[in-house]
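Input C-alpha coordinates:
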Protein backbone atom coordinates (compact mmCIF):
# COMPACT_ATOMS: atom_id res chain seq x y z
CA UNK A 1 0.00 0.00 0.00
CA UNK A 2 1.34 3.47 -0.91
CA UNK A 3 1.41 5.73 2.12
CA UNK A 4 1.44 9.53 2.19
CA UNK A 5 4.56 11.64 2.28
CA UNK A 6 4.02 12.74 5.88
CA UNK A 7 4.19 9.23 7.35
CA UNK A 8 7.25 7.08 8.06
CA UNK A 9 6.37 4.55 5.35
CA UNK A 10 6.86 5.60 1.76
CA UNK A 11 8.65 4.31 -1.30
CA UNK A 12 11.42 6.77 -2.17
CA UNK A 13 13.46 9.28 -0.18
CA UNK A 14 14.95 11.89 -2.56
CA UNK A 15 18.09 13.58 -1.18
CA UNK A 16 19.37 16.64 -3.09
CA UNK A 17 20.56 20.07 -2.01
CA UNK A 18 19.02 21.76 -5.08
CA UNK A 19 15.27 22.48 -4.61
CA UNK A 20 14.68 22.41 -8.38
CA UNK A 21 16.25 18.96 -8.67
CA UNK A 22 14.26 17.64 -5.70
CA UNK A 23 11.04 18.94 -7.24
CA UNK A 24 11.81 17.50 -10.67
CA UNK A 25 12.69 14.04 -9.38
CA UNK A 26 9.71 13.94 -7.02
CA UNK A 27 7.35 15.04 -9.80
CA UNK A 28 8.56 12.29 -12.15
CA UNK A 29 8.07 9.63 -9.51
CA UNK A 30 4.67 10.89 -8.32
CA UNK A 31 3.34 10.80 -11.87
CA UNK A 32 4.29 7.11 -11.92
CA UNK A 33 2.36 6.55 -8.68
CA UNK A 34 5.40 6.38 -6.40
CA UNK A 35 5.15 7.92 -2.91
CA UNK A 36 8.01 10.33 -2.19
CA UNK A 37 9.57 12.30 0.65
CA UNK A 38 12.46 14.72 0.15
CA UNK A 39 15.47 15.82 2.20
CA UNK A 40 17.61 18.88 1.49
CA UNK A 41 20.93 17.26 2.47
CA UNK A 42 22.55 14.10 3.80
CA UNK A 43 22.28 15.12 7.44
CA UNK A 44 18.50 15.54 7.16
CA UNK A 45 18.18 12.20 5.38
CA UNK A 46 20.09 10.39 8.14
CA UNK A 47 18.00 12.17 10.77
CA UNK A 48 14.77 11.00 9.10
CA UNK A 49 15.98 7.41 9.10
CA UNK A 50 17.13 7.64 12.71
CA UNK A 51 13.69 8.86 13.80
CA UNK A 52 11.81 5.98 12.23
CA UNK A 53 11.35 6.67 8.51
CA UNK A 54 11.39 3.49 6.45
CA UNK A 55 11.62 4.22 2.70
CA UNK A 56 11.93 1.47 0.14
CA UNK A 57 14.70 3.23 -1.82
CA UNK A 58 17.00 6.23 -1.25
CA UNK A 59 17.67 8.37 -4.33
CA UNK A 60 20.90 10.18 -3.44
CA UNK A 61 22.59 13.07 -5.22
CA UNK A 62 26.38 12.78 -5.29
CA UNK A 63 27.38 16.47 -5.32
CA UNK A 64 26.14 18.02 -2.06
CA UNK A 65 27.80 20.41 0.42
CA UNK A 66 28.91 18.98 3.73
CA UNK A 67 28.31 15.25 3.45
CA UNK A 68 28.48 14.30 -0.21
CA UNK A 69 26.50 11.39 -1.62
CA UNK A 70 29.34 8.90 -1.19
CA UNK A 71 29.74 9.76 2.52
CA UNK A 72 26.00 9.52 3.12
CA UNK A 73 25.87 6.16 1.34
CA UNK A 74 28.72 4.78 3.45
CA UNK A 75 26.91 5.92 6.59
CA UNK A 76 23.69 4.25 5.40
CA UNK A 77 25.56 1.00 4.85
CA UNK A 78 26.73 1.03 8.46
CA UNK A 79 23.06 0.89 9.44
CA UNK A 80 21.38 -1.17 6.72
CA UNK A 81 22.51 -3.53 4.00
CA UNK A 82 21.93 -3.02 0.29
CA UNK A 83 19.15 -5.59 0.40
CA UNK A 84 17.42 -3.84 3.31
CA UNK A 85 17.68 -0.31 1.87
CA UNK A 86 18.70 0.08 -1.81
CA UNK A 87 20.48 3.31 -2.77
CA UNK A 88 20.49 4.89 -6.25
CA UNK A 89 23.12 7.55 -6.90
CA UNK A 90 22.15 10.62 -8.95
CA UNK A 91 25.26 11.93 -10.66
CA UNK A 92 26.24 14.21 -13.49
CA UNK A 93 29.53 12.35 -13.70
CA UNK A 94 29.75 9.47 -16.11
CA UNK A 95 33.37 8.51 -15.62
CA UNK A 96 34.14 4.90 -14.80
CA UNK A 97 36.05 5.81 -11.63
CA UNK A 98 33.06 7.83 -10.33
CA UNK A 99 30.69 4.93 -10.93
CA UNK A 100 33.15 2.54 -9.23
CA UNK A 101 33.43 4.88 -6.23
CA UNK A 102 29.63 4.91 -5.93
CA UNK A 103 29.41 1.11 -5.91
CA UNK A 104 32.32 0.93 -3.44
CA UNK A 105 30.38 3.24 -1.11
CA UNK A 106 27.48 0.75 -1.18
CA UNK A 107 25.22 2.04 -3.96
CA UNK A 108 22.95 -0.47 -5.71
CA UNK A 109 22.61 1.46 -8.97
CA UNK A 110 23.09 4.93 -10.45
CA UNK A 111 21.28 7.36 -12.75
CA UNK A 112 23.20 9.91 -14.78
CA UNK A 113 21.93 13.48 -15.15
CA UNK A 114 20.25 14.57 -17.26
CA UNK A 115 17.97 11.55 -17.09
CA UNK A 116 14.77 10.57 -18.83
CA UNK A 117 11.66 10.10 -16.74
CA UNK A 118 11.25 6.54 -18.08
CA UNK A 119 14.78 5.53 -17.11
CA UNK A 120 14.45 7.01 -13.61
CA UNK A 121 11.12 5.29 -12.96
CA UNK A 122 12.37 1.97 -14.36
CA UNK A 123 15.51 1.93 -12.19
CA UNK A 124 13.57 2.93 -9.07
CA UNK A 125 10.89 0.33 -9.79
CA UNK A 126 13.55 -2.38 -10.18
CA UNK A 127 15.04 -1.60 -6.78
CA UNK A 128 11.61 -1.45 -5.15
CA UNK A 129 10.75 -4.88 -6.56
CA UNK A 130 14.08 -6.34 -5.44
CA UNK A 131 13.55 -4.93 -1.95
CA UNK A 132 10.06 -6.38 -1.76
CA UNK A 133 11.36 -9.77 -2.94
CA UNK A 134 13.99 -9.66 -0.21
CA UNK A 135 11.37 -8.91 2.44
CA UNK A 136 9.17 -11.76 1.22
CA UNK A 137 12.16 -14.11 1.27
CA UNK A 138 13.06 -13.06 4.82
CA UNK A 139 9.47 -13.61 5.95
CA UNK A 140 9.44 -17.08 4.36
CA UNK A 141 12.70 -17.98 6.08
CA UNK A 142 11.30 -16.75 9.40
CA UNK A 143 8.13 -18.79 8.97
CA UNK A 144 10.11 -21.92 8.09
CA UNK A 145 12.22 -21.47 11.20
CA UNK A 146 9.11 -21.05 13.32
CA UNK A 147 7.52 -24.18 11.88
CA UNK A 148 10.73 -26.16 12.40
CA UNK A 149 11.12 -24.91 15.98
CA UNK A 150 7.47 -25.60 16.79
CA UNK A 151 7.76 -29.11 15.39
CA UNK A 152 10.94 -29.72 17.34
CA UNK A 153 9.32 -28.42 20.52
CA UNK A 154 6.28 -30.66 20.11
CA UNK A 155 8.46 -33.69 19.39
CA UNK A 156 10.68 -33.02 22.41
CA UNK A 157 7.59 -32.61 24.60
CA UNK A 158 6.17 -35.91 23.40
CA UNK A 159 9.46 -37.74 23.98
CA UNK A 160 9.79 -36.13 27.40
CA UNK A 161 6.29 -37.27 28.35
CA UNK A 162 7.11 -40.83 27.36
CA UNK A 163 10.42 -40.78 29.25
CA UNK A 164 8.77 -39.42 32.40
CA UNK A 165 6.06 -42.06 32.15
CA UNK A 166 8.67 -44.80 32.07
CA UNK A 167 10.79 -43.28 34.85
CA UNK A 168 7.75 -43.09 37.16
CA UNK A 169 7.15 -46.82 36.82
CA UNK A 170 8.96 -47.25 40.14
CA UNK A 171 5.85 -45.92 41.89
CA UNK A 172 3.47 -48.79 42.68
CA UNK A 173 0.35 -46.62 42.68
CA UNK A 174 -1.32 -45.79 39.36
CA UNK A 175 -0.36 -42.19 38.68
CA UNK A 176 -1.15 -39.80 35.86
CA UNK A 177 -1.05 -36.04 35.47
CA UNK A 178 -3.32 -33.49 33.80
CA UNK A 179 -1.76 -30.36 32.31
CA UNK A 180 -3.16 -26.84 31.97
CA UNK A 181 -5.02 -27.88 28.80
CA UNK A 182 -6.80 -30.65 30.77
CA UNK A 183 -4.90 -33.30 28.81
CA UNK A 184 -2.92 -36.27 30.10
CA UNK A 185 0.70 -35.12 30.50
CA UNK A 186 2.18 -38.42 31.62
CA UNK A 187 1.22 -41.72 33.22
CA UNK A 188 3.12 -44.63 34.71
CA UNK A 189 3.07 -48.37 34.13
CA UNK A 190 0.71 -49.00 37.05
CA UNK A 191 -1.80 -46.71 35.37
CA UNK A 192 -1.50 -48.64 32.11
CA UNK A 193 -2.00 -51.92 33.95
CA UNK A 194 -5.02 -50.67 35.89
CA UNK A 195 -6.87 -49.31 32.84
CA UNK A 196 -5.35 -51.49 30.12
CA UNK A 197 -4.34 -48.40 28.12
CA UNK A 198 -0.83 -47.76 26.78
CA UNK A 199 0.96 -44.47 27.37
CA UNK A 200 1.13 -43.83 23.62
CA UNK A 201 -2.65 -43.89 23.26
CA UNK A 202 -3.24 -41.95 26.49
CA UNK A 203 -0.77 -39.04 26.41
CA UNK A 204 -2.29 -35.86 25.05
CA UNK A 205 -5.87 -37.11 25.44
CA UNK A 206 -8.47 -35.01 27.30
CA UNK A 207 -9.31 -36.10 30.82
CA UNK A 208 -12.94 -36.57 29.78
CA UNK A 209 -11.93 -39.48 27.51
CA UNK A 210 -10.74 -41.43 30.56
CA UNK A 211 -14.12 -41.11 32.25
CA UNK A 212 -16.56 -43.86 31.35
CA UNK A 213 -19.47 -41.42 31.55
CA UNK A 214 -18.32 -37.76 31.66
CA UNK A 215 -21.89 -36.66 32.49
CA UNK A 216 -22.26 -38.92 35.54
CA UNK A 217 -22.47 -37.05 38.88
CA UNK A 218 -19.20 -38.61 40.14
CA UNK A 219 -17.39 -37.67 36.91
CA UNK A 220 -18.64 -34.10 37.14
CA UNK A 221 -17.48 -33.92 40.75
CA UNK A 222 -13.98 -35.06 39.77
CA UNK A 223 -13.82 -32.53 36.91
CA UNK A 224 -14.99 -29.78 39.27
CA UNK A 225 -12.25 -30.78 41.72
CA UNK A 226 -9.66 -30.42 38.94
CA UNK A 227 -10.92 -26.92 38.23
CA UNK A 228 -10.67 -25.97 41.91
CA UNK A 229 -7.09 -27.23 42.09
CA UNK A 230 -6.18 -25.30 38.94
CA UNK A 231 -7.59 -22.17 40.60
CA UNK A 232 -5.42 -22.71 43.67
CA UNK A 233 -8.21 -24.06 45.88
CA UNK A 234 -8.48 -27.47 47.60
CA UNK A 235 -10.03 -30.17 45.44
CA UNK A 236 -12.30 -31.30 48.26
CA UNK A 237 -13.49 -34.87 48.76
CA UNK A 238 -13.66 -36.68 45.42
CA UNK A 239 -16.12 -39.57 45.10
CA UNK A 240 -15.18 -42.94 43.60
CA UNK A 241 -15.49 -42.70 39.83
CA UNK A 242 -15.70 -45.13 36.95
CA UNK A 243 -12.86 -44.80 34.44
CA UNK A 244 -12.84 -46.25 30.94
CA UNK A 245 -10.79 -49.42 30.74
CA UNK A 246 -10.04 -51.84 27.90
CA UNK A 247 -12.97 -52.14 25.51
CA UNK A 248 -14.86 -49.43 27.39
CA UNK A 249 -15.32 -51.54 30.52
CA UNK A 250 -15.86 -49.72 33.79
CA UNK A 251 -12.91 -49.52 36.22
CA UNK A 252 -14.16 -48.17 39.60
CA UNK A 253 -11.38 -46.09 41.17
CA UNK A 254 -10.71 -43.96 44.21
CA UNK A 255 -9.06 -40.74 43.03
CA UNK A 256 -6.74 -38.55 45.05
CA UNK A 257 -5.70 -35.28 43.41
CA UNK A 258 -2.73 -33.04 44.23
CA UNK A 259 -1.77 -29.74 42.63
CA UNK A 260 1.87 -29.70 41.47
CA UNK A 261 4.14 -27.07 40.03
CA UNK A 262 6.76 -28.59 37.80
CA UNK A 263 8.95 -26.08 36.00
CA UNK A 264 7.43 -26.75 32.60
CA UNK A 265 3.82 -26.08 33.65
CA UNK A 266 1.35 -26.47 36.50
CA UNK A 267 -0.06 -29.98 36.75
CA UNK A 268 -2.70 -31.87 38.65
CA UNK A 269 -1.43 -35.25 39.75
CA UNK A 270 -4.02 -37.99 40.20
CA UNK A 271 -3.36 -41.18 42.10
CA UNK A 272 -5.72 -44.08 41.42
CA UNK A 273 -6.61 -47.12 43.49
CA UNK A 274 -9.13 -49.79 42.82
CA UNK A 275 -12.37 -48.84 44.56
CA UNK A 276 -12.72 -52.47 45.69
CA UNK A 277 -9.24 -52.54 47.22
CA UNK A 278 -9.84 -49.12 48.76
CA UNK A 279 -13.05 -50.30 50.42
CA UNK A 280 -11.27 -53.32 51.87
CA UNK A 281 -8.44 -51.18 53.25
CA UNK A 282 -10.75 -48.45 54.60
CA UNK A 283 -10.44 -44.71 53.90
CA UNK A 284 -9.76 -42.74 50.79
CA UNK A 285 -6.54 -40.91 51.75
CA UNK A 286 -3.19 -41.86 50.28
CA UNK A 287 -1.68 -44.69 52.37
CA UNK A 288 1.17 -43.69 54.64
CA UNK A 289 3.32 -46.24 52.87
CA UNK A 290 3.15 -44.12 49.72
CA UNK A 291 5.01 -41.26 51.38
CA UNK A 292 7.70 -43.73 52.44
CA UNK A 293 7.98 -45.11 48.91
CA UNK A 294 8.08 -41.59 47.44
CA UNK A 295 11.01 -40.63 49.64
CA UNK A 296 12.73 -43.94 48.91
CA UNK A 297 12.36 -43.36 45.18
CA UNK A 298 13.68 -39.81 45.55
CA UNK A 299 16.84 -41.11 47.23
CA UNK A 300 17.34 -43.65 44.45
CA UNK A 301 16.98 -40.93 41.80
CA UNK A 302 19.42 -38.64 43.59
CA UNK A 303 21.97 -41.48 43.74
CA UNK A 304 21.51 -41.99 39.99
CA UNK A 305 22.14 -38.27 39.45
CA UNK A 306 25.34 -38.39 41.45
CA UNK A 307 26.54 -41.45 39.54
CA UNK A 308 25.64 -39.94 36.17
CA UNK A 309 27.57 -36.75 36.92
CA UNK A 310 30.80 -38.81 37.09
CA UNK A 311 30.32 -40.21 33.57
CA UNK A 312 31.37 -38.63 30.29
CA UNK A 313 28.70 -36.99 28.16
CA UNK A 314 28.11 -38.32 24.67
CA UNK A 315 26.28 -35.98 22.36
CA UNK A 316 24.31 -34.37 25.18
CA UNK A 317 22.67 -37.66 26.17
CA UNK A 318 23.85 -37.36 29.79
CA UNK A 319 22.33 -33.89 30.17
CA UNK A 320 19.00 -35.10 28.77
CA UNK A 321 18.86 -37.96 31.28
CA UNK A 322 19.91 -35.61 34.09
CA UNK A 323 17.11 -33.22 33.22
CA UNK A 324 14.59 -36.05 33.28
CA UNK A 325 15.89 -37.37 36.59
CA UNK A 326 15.69 -33.92 38.15
CA UNK A 327 12.17 -33.44 36.84
CA UNK A 328 11.06 -36.73 38.39
CA UNK A 329 12.89 -35.80 41.60
CA UNK A 330 11.05 -32.47 41.68
CA UNK A 331 7.78 -34.26 40.96
CA UNK A 332 8.21 -36.70 43.83
CA UNK A 333 9.37 -33.93 46.16
CA UNK A 334 6.33 -31.86 45.19
CA UNK A 335 3.99 -34.76 45.85
CA UNK A 336 5.46 -35.37 49.28
CA UNK A 337 5.71 -31.66 50.02
CA UNK A 338 2.12 -31.08 48.97
CA UNK A 339 0.94 -33.84 51.25
CA UNK A 340 2.98 -32.52 54.18
CA UNK A 341 2.36 -28.82 53.52
CA UNK A 342 6.08 -28.13 53.14
CA UNK A 343 7.43 -25.14 51.24
CA UNK A 344 10.43 -22.91 50.68
CA UNK A 345 11.25 -20.18 53.19
CA UNK A 346 10.17 -16.70 52.07
CA UNK A 347 13.76 -15.37 52.17
CA UNK A 348 14.95 -18.24 49.95
CA UNK A 349 12.24 -17.55 47.41
CA UNK A 350 13.13 -13.87 47.38
CA UNK A 351 16.76 -14.79 46.72
CA UNK A 352 15.81 -17.02 43.77
CA UNK A 353 13.79 -14.25 42.12
CA UNK A 354 16.44 -11.62 42.84
CA UNK A 355 19.18 -13.79 41.32
CA UNK A 356 17.21 -14.54 38.15
CA UNK A 357 16.29 -10.90 37.54
CA UNK A 358 19.89 -9.84 38.13
CA UNK A 359 21.04 -12.52 35.67
CA UNK A 360 18.65 -11.22 33.01
CA UNK A 361 19.79 -7.64 33.56
CA UNK A 362 23.46 -8.61 33.18
CA UNK A 363 22.69 -10.83 30.18
CA UNK A 364 20.99 -7.96 28.34
CA UNK A 365 23.72 -5.50 29.27
CA UNK A 366 26.53 -7.85 28.22
CA UNK A 367 25.04 -9.27 25.02
CA UNK A 368 22.21 -6.97 23.96
CA UNK A 369 20.00 -10.07 23.64
CA UNK A 370 16.63 -10.97 25.16
CA UNK A 371 15.65 -13.66 27.67
CA UNK A 372 14.56 -16.01 24.89
CA UNK A 373 18.12 -15.98 23.55
CA UNK A 374 19.42 -16.76 27.05
CA UNK A 375 17.10 -19.77 27.25
CA UNK A 376 18.16 -21.08 23.83
CA UNK A 377 21.90 -20.39 24.04
CA UNK A 378 22.38 -21.64 27.60
CA UNK A 379 20.26 -24.75 27.05
CA UNK A 380 19.09 -24.43 30.65
CA UNK A 381 15.50 -23.33 30.02
CA UNK A 382 12.77 -24.43 27.67
CA UNK A 383 11.89 -22.05 24.84
CA UNK A 384 9.24 -22.62 22.21
CA UNK A 385 7.65 -20.70 19.37
CA UNK A 386 3.96 -19.82 19.64
CA UNK A 387 1.65 -19.53 16.64
CA UNK A 388 2.01 -15.76 16.77
CA UNK A 389 5.75 -16.11 16.16
CA UNK A 390 6.70 -15.05 19.68
CA UNK A 391 9.43 -17.04 21.43
CA UNK A 392 7.97 -18.13 24.76
CA UNK A 393 10.01 -18.85 27.89
CA UNK A 394 7.21 -19.97 30.18
CA UNK A 395 9.45 -21.85 32.62
CA UNK A 396 12.03 -19.08 32.95
CA UNK A 397 9.27 -16.47 33.34
CA UNK A 398 7.99 -18.21 36.48
CA UNK A 399 11.33 -17.56 38.17
CA UNK A 400 11.06 -13.78 37.78
CA UNK A 401 8.38 -13.16 40.42
CA UNK A 402 7.70 -14.70 43.83
CA UNK A 403 4.00 -15.27 43.16
CA UNK A 404 4.79 -17.46 40.12
CA UNK A 405 7.94 -19.14 41.44
CA UNK A 406 7.47 -22.94 41.65
CA UNK A 407 6.88 -24.32 45.11
CA UNK A 408 10.17 -26.22 44.80
CA UNK A 409 12.56 -24.04 42.75
CA UNK A 410 15.32 -25.81 40.85
CA UNK A 411 18.31 -24.35 42.68
CA UNK A 412 20.83 -26.11 40.47
CA UNK A 413 19.33 -24.49 37.38
CA UNK A 414 19.26 -21.04 38.99
CA UNK A 415 22.93 -21.34 39.98
CA UNK A 416 23.88 -22.64 36.51
CA UNK A 417 22.08 -19.70 34.89
CA UNK A 418 23.90 -17.17 37.07
CA UNK A 419 27.26 -18.84 36.40
CA UNK A 420 26.57 -18.93 32.65
CA UNK A 421 25.76 -15.22 32.58
CA UNK A 422 28.73 -14.28 34.76
CA UNK A 423 31.06 -16.09 32.36
CA UNK A 424 29.91 -13.71 29.60
CA UNK A 425 29.97 -10.50 31.66
CA UNK A 426 32.94 -8.12 31.33
CA UNK A 427 34.67 -7.46 34.68
CA UNK A 428 33.68 -3.78 34.60
CA UNK A 429 29.97 -4.36 33.92
CA UNK A 430 28.11 -2.27 36.57
CA UNK A 431 25.55 -4.97 37.40
CA UNK A 432 28.12 -7.75 37.75
CA UNK A 433 28.89 -7.27 41.51
CA UNK A 434 25.23 -7.70 42.44
CA UNK A 435 24.99 -10.89 40.39
CA UNK A 436 28.20 -12.25 41.90
CA UNK A 437 26.84 -11.53 45.38
CA UNK A 438 23.61 -13.35 44.55
CA UNK A 439 25.62 -16.35 43.38
CA UNK A 440 27.54 -16.50 46.67
CA UNK A 441 24.26 -16.46 48.62
CA UNK A 442 22.76 -19.10 46.30
CA UNK A 443 25.65 -21.48 46.86
CA UNK A 444 25.30 -21.02 50.60
CA UNK A 445 21.54 -21.65 50.29
CA UNK A 446 22.08 -24.74 48.10
Amino acid sequence: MILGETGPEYQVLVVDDEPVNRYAVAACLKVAGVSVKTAKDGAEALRLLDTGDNPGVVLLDVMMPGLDGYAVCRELRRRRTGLELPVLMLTCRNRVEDVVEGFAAGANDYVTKPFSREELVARVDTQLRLGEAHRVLEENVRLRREVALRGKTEQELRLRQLRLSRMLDAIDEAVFAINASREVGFCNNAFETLLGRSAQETLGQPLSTLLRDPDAPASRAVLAGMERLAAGEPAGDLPPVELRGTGGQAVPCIVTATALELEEEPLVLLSLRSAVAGAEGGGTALPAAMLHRLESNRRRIQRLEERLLTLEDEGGAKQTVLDDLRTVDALLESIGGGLNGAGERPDARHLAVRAMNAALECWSAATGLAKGDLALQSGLWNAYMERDGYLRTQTLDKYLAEDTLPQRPNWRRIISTVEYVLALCPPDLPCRPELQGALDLLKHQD
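Confidence is low (pLDDT under 50) at residues 278-289, 338-344. The chain has 16 helices and twelve strands.
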